[in-house]
Structure formats: C-alpha cells, structure tokens
Amino acid sequence: MEGSGGREKEHLLSLKVMRLTKPSFIGLTPVLCEANDIAGGDTLTDIKPSLASVKSIPSFSVSEMLTLPQNFGSIYLGETFSSYVNVHNDSQSTVSDIQVKTDLQTASQRLTLSSTTTPNNGDLEPDGSVDDVVNHEVKELGTHILVCAVSYAAPSGEKMYFRKFFKFQVLKPLDVKTKFYNAEDYRRFRGRVFYASDEVYLEAQIQNITNSPMCMEKVNLEPSPKYNVRELNTVERTQSNETTFGKLNYLNPMDVRQYLYCLTAKQHPGALKVILKGVSNIGKLDIVWRTNLGERGRLQTSQLERVAPGYGDVRLAINEVPDGVQIEKPFNFKCQITSCCDRTMELRLVLTNTTKGLHWIGVSGKQLGKLGPGASMDIDLTLMASIPGLLSISGLRLTDQYLKRTYEHDDIAQVFVYTSLEGA
Questions:
Q1: Phi and psi angles of residue 122, each rounded to the nearest 5 degrees, phi first
Q2: Is the pLDDT of residue 11 over 60?
C-alpha cells in the first residue's frame, strides 16, 4: 500500500501499512494448440510443471492455489476495511515514548481508529516492532485517506514526529432502484364479486456493479410504523420455504434481480388520512451479501418515500362490484366516499349516463349529508346494461354544497355484460 509523507530528517523508525483482505485464486491463461499445429503439444507440456495449473485439467484458467493480494484492490461501500499497521525500529538504538495514532479522513468527518503506545515502559529495542490492526465499516463513498502518525523520543531526548497518508477510493457495490405501484388493486373474494384493497406494492431492482459475483444473504424491507410488510420472494413448500431465485442465490457482475414486497397500512385512528395525503415514509431496505470468498458486506438504504395518489378532497373507492352481469338485468355495487380535506363538506350525488349501453337506476341529485375531515360513508348504487361487452362505469358526480365544487368520477370500475346464452 503506497503512502505519501514528507521526510525532512532521517528517522530511526519505519512505518508500513498493509490492507488485510481475503486471498484470491491464482489465475492462469493457458495457450492451447491443436495436435497438427506447428507447436504441437509443446505448449501444454510447458504448462504442466506450473504450480498454477490443475493436475487433472491443466487447461483450466483457475488454479487450486491461493495468493495474497498484490495490490490494494477495490473497497466497496458497506464492507469492513481492515489494515495492518507496523512500526519497526530500523536503528541500533533504543527509542522511547512511542505513540502510533491512526485516523481515517473522509469527505465529511475524521475518525480515530486507534491510538497505540509501546509496551515495556515505552521503550522499543533495535529490530523491535509495534503492531496494530484497525477496522472500520465503510459508510461513505468517495476518497478516503488513512492518516498514520508516529511520535517517539530519540536516545538524545529529542522529540521526533512523522506521518504518512494512504489514499483509497470507496466504490458503490450495488445499484438499487425502487418503484411503487400506487394504484388500487382488486382481488377476488368469492364468486363473481371483487373487493377493493389499499395495498401498496414495492418493487426493488438490485444490480451487482462490482467485478465479482456476490451471494445475496438477505434482502429485507424494514417498514415504518405506519405499515405492515409481506415479502413475496419465497415459494411455500411443504417442508421449507425456498426463494423464487432458487437454491443458488447469487448475482453475477452486472446482473439485476427484482424483489417484491406488499405493504398495508396499519389500522389506527387517523391512519387513512395520513396515508392518503402527501408523502409517506415506507421504510428502509436492508441488504446483506458475501463475496466469492465469504467477505461480508451490508447496505441500508435511506428512507423510501411514497407519494400518495392525488385523490384531491374526495376519494371514491369501490368496495364490491360484480365482474360479470347479465344484459338488461339490474345489478348493484358498493362504494365508499372518504374526505381527504380538513373541512366539513355537504355532498350531493348526481348520476349521469356517460357510458353507452350502461344506465343508472335511482335518484339523481340525492343529498348525502355532511362528511367531516377524514370521515367516510358507504353508498349503494344500481345500474343496468343494455348492450353486451366490457363496459366502464362512469358518470358519478359529487358536489360540495358549501363551495359549489363538483368532483367528477369516471372509469370507476369495469364489468363484463353477457347475454343469457353466454352466461349459461
């Protein structure tokens, strides 16, 4: 590990720093030839005695032997940086009062990793050493500088001091993209009736942007206090649950994997009002991985925010609607009106036939009464279809009598209209 530091005078001590990391397999680039080529089998014969070659398969590019790192290598965000610091007495004299201080300078802060003094009352004999190992979980991107400062007293009593700087870059290991599906989802309950659900789905796309494969040990969503979470990344088996990615849960370089989570709002007073308006915090993704030699890394994203759908002052939700109805036969559906504003409204219901072949049955202009902030009311409506096909329910109008403001609701839901022969 190369460092930089001024040396104005000859010092009695030397400083060496080495990064502690896992070894790697020795690489081999075999050059093979066909038997009828000029080189014949001479190339393969030269490779066989090499220590890096595998005896049973000498043309394999990865050896069975390990080698220590020959350079500083790459450091990624979320990994633990470990370094070995050695101060050695190169002189023939005994020095005293040795202090070794190791700091890490980042773009935003300076951290003290260790502060070491010599044993034996502070004296260091010739050819003696002071050793230390420092560890730090890397939590910032960009340039990092390891600052090693050494102070000691020479035999003459003169105070000596020097320091060295070791610079390295911290890179981003993963690219995480998230997407929320804010639209209301409908799930089948029984028969031909659908019930509405306010579930929110989070899709997290995780890409390995390092140069080596990694094993994904854990990808969890830690929800905020407002939500419950259900992960959808496992397949239920009789004996145990298996991930949807199979038994070998690893990512090759530049591979992308999608994780899916379902969130539901916790039911407590005022919860609906908080979730429907403005921005709500969903939670954080906690990601743990290991490299091909078992080195562990961990990342936690910042708070994920979901922008709630723009319902305006009034939200209309379908509670129950049939998926199929018979032509020229009335059918009912239920919906819920929720106030998303901070004032009381007095609502009036107006029904208009805006969809061809679909007709409202009931009283238009009906007074629904007052609706307070965050309050809800259920209404039952009736329709009849005069033509077959897939028809969209539209034409529901809510008018606030206080402000004379009308809220239009179209394409509320869809129903399939069939004839008596098709329904048989």
A1: 85, 5
A2: yes
Q: What is the pTM of this model?
A: 0.63
**Backbone dihedral angles phi then psi of residue 277, each to the nearest 5 degrees:** -105, 140
Q: What is the pLDDT of residue 40?
A: 56
By the 8 A CB rule, do 118 and 98 touch? yes
**Which of 45-49, 130-134, 205-209 is predicted with the least confidence, judged by mean pLDDT?**
45-49
Q: What is the mean pLDDT of the chain?
A: 80
The 3 state secondary structure assigned to the chain is CCCECCCCCCCCEEEEEEECCCCEEEECCCCCCCCCCCCCCHHHHHHCCCCCCCCCCCCCCEEEEEECCCCCCCEECCEEEEEEEEEEECCCCCEEEEEEEEEEECCCCEEEEEEEECCHHHEECCCCEEEEEEEEECCCCEEEEEEEEEEEECCCCCEEEEEEEEEEEEECCEEEEEEEECCCEEEEEECCEEEEECCEEEEEEEEECCCCCEEEEEEEEEECCCEEEEECCEECCCCCCEECCCCCCEECCCCEEEEEEEEEECCCCCHHHHHHCCEEEEEEEEEEEEECCCCEEEEECCCEEEECCCCCCEEEEEEEEECEEECCCCEEEEEEEEECCCCCEEEEEEECCCCCCEEEECCCCEEEEEECCCCEEEEEEEEEECCCEEEEECCEEEEECCCCEEEEECCCEEEEEECHHHHC
193 falls in which pLDDT band (50, 70, 90)? Answer: very low
In terms of pLDDT, which residue wins out, 198 or 264?
A: 264
Mean pLDDT of all residues in 102-125: 82
Residue 260 and residue 233: Cα distance in Å, rounded? 6
Q: What angle do CA 306, 310, 312 make, to 5 degrees?
A: 140
**pLDDT above 90 for 157:** no
CB-CB contact of 324 with 422 (8 Å): no
